[in-house]
Design goal:
This protein is of the alpha/beta class. The chain folds into two domains: 5-46 and 83-194, Rossmann fold (3-Layer(aba) Sandwich), CATH 3.40.50; 50-81 and 203-390, Rossmann fold (3-Layer(aba) Sandwich), CATH 3.40.50. Helix content is 42%, strand content 17%. It contains 15 helices and 14 strands. The protein has helices at 19-31, 36-50, 60-66, 84-97, 111-122, 133-138, 140-148, 163-177, 194-217, 232-238, 267-270, 308-316, 326-340, 346-357, 380-383, and strands at residues 5-6, 9-10, 56-58, 69-74, 102-107, 126-132, 152-156, 181-183, 223-227, 248-254, 272-276, 279-283, 319-324, 367-372. It has a six-stranded mixed beta sheet, with helices on both faces. It has a four-stranded parallel beta sheet with strand order 7-6-5-8, with helices on both faces. Strand 9, helix 10 and strand 10 form a beta-alpha-beta unit. Helix 9 crosses helix 10. The protein is globular, with a radius of gyration of 19 Å. The chain starts with a strand and ends in an 8-residue tail after the last helix. Bound molecules: pyridoxal-5'-phosphate. Residues 82, 84, 111, 187, 227-234, 300-301, 345, 347-348, 373-374 line the site of pyridoxal-5'-phosphate.
């Protein structure tokens, strides 16, 4: 079966009972998504509910220090504070067109859960969110937000009680409830057609950024840089430039503390090929194929796998994947906050950090776009622990 493959990665490695809802979703992607009626309704929501288009902001102070122009694609300014709402609203709207009554999803740090619970309210649907019991404990603020939005949050007690287990549980639940529920997958990963569907709904980021940078500078950028968890914000902005061979695409993974052998979330830089959550992709796994625990200071990057299209772009060399550690991330968080008055999410701070730490790799005077995937308000409890950030 070659359907849903990006080179050798991707596919649909799922239980027989999940084939029917995935097939139904493939049909919807082919027939409903391209229709004028759907596109018009989706654009209306992006404009009037999410607040698009998001600005492309030039950073004057950092650009002077760097010797080249740093532009930020401001996904932090979207409703609910990140790029996730683009995908979630697209899928919720599609589910509605497919006649579904409810959304189910998984969440790790809670951001996808909050975005899905929000979209469910906007479209008057029920919402159930699977979340590892450990994450329910450590992300209680987002659990309260989901509950206020009327969602049911189900703590998952299996395995390591984190995101990986929440996804397994959500897939199992979907088998039982496929007639009424749509699984609103949170990133550009999982079995076909999710990686393609999520890229489709996040591609608005790349389309806008390409138009905006050409309007502002008269040319394509030197590089486009984004953090990579499952890979949805990165594939969204990359998709606008992937056919422009002159543009460097750089994905930034989370290295954890950066020490040799530390727990990390960098399967492209440090992992091997294997199968997880219905897809063939790059994974953090041991020699027996057991998934290893992942970690990042940024909850949204904490996933032991990555979307299959990134595995392909890595494999064929069209995009470069690099990693940044926790301290470099915190330094970038502070640098952007102090220089420009823009407080980035710790996920997005990884992408900013790569630029700050590698300024010699960029020619003087060039134009670089960083996808600012989200805002930092949600990270106060973490950054509070680092007193040097307040000096
Ligand atoms: C969830 C999240 C990410 C990581 O997810 P991707 O699918 O890799 O984009 C990055 N930034 C923010 C702000 C997030 O909430």
């Amino acid at each position: 079966m070659s359907k849903g493959y990006f080179g050798e990665f991707g596919g649909q490695f799922v239980a027989e009972l999940l084939i029917p809802p995935l097939k139904e979703l493939e049909d919807a992607l082919e027939n409903i998504v391209p229709s004028e009626a759907f596109q018009k309704e989706f654009s209306d929501y992006l404009k009037n509910y999410v607040g698009r288009e998001s600005p492309l902001t030039h950073c004057p102070t950092l650009s002077t220090d760097l010797g080249f122009n740093l532009y930020l694609k401001r996904e932090d300014l979207n409703h609910t504070g990140s790029h996730k709402i683009n995908n979630v609203l697209g899928q919720a709207l599609l589910a509605k067109h497919m006649g579904k009554k409810a959304l189910l999803t998984e969440t790790g740090a809670g951001m996808n859960g909050v975005a899905t619970a929000t979209a469910a309210r906007a479209l008057d649907m029920d919402c159930i969110v699977f979340m590892g019991a450990v994450d329910v404990e450590r992300q209680s603020h987002n659990v309260r937000r989901m509950k206020l939005l009327g969602a049911t949050v189900v703590p998952v007690e299996a395995g390591s009680k984190t995101l990986k287990d929440a996804i397994n549980e959500a897939l199992r639940f979907w088998i039982k409830k496929q007639a009424t529920h749509h699984y609103c997958f949170g990133t550009a990963a999982g079995p076909h057609p999710f990686p393609t569907l999520v890229r489709e709904f996040q591609s608005v980021v790349g389309k806008e950024a390409r138009k905006q940078i050409i309007e502002r500078t008269g040319a394509l950028p030197h590089s486009v840089i984004a953090c990579v968890g499952g890979g949805s914000n990165a594939i969204g902005i990359f998709s606008g430039f992937v056919d422009d061979c002159s543009v460097n695409l750089i994905g930034v993974e989370a290295a954890g503390t950066g020490e040799e052998g530390c727990t990390n979330s960098a399967p492209l830089c440090l992992g091997t090929a294997g199968i997880l959550h219905g897809q063939k992709t790059m994974l953090l796994q041991d020699a027996d194929g057991q998934i290893m625990p992942s970690h990042s200071i940024a909850g949204g990057l904490d996933y032991p796998g990555v979307g299959p299209e990134h595995a392909h772009l890595h494999h064929c060399g069209r995009a470069e994947y690099v990693k940044v550690n926790d301290m470099q991330t915190l330094h970038a968080f502070k640098a952007l906050t102090r220089a420009e008055g823009i407080m980035p999410a710790l996920e997005s701070s990884h992408a900013v950090a790569y630029v700050l730490e590698n300024k010699d790799k960029f020619p003087k005077g060039c134009n670089v776009i960083v996808n600012l995937s989200g805002r930092g308000d949600k990270d106060m409890d973490i950054v509070e622990q680092y007193t040097e950030l307040f000096d």
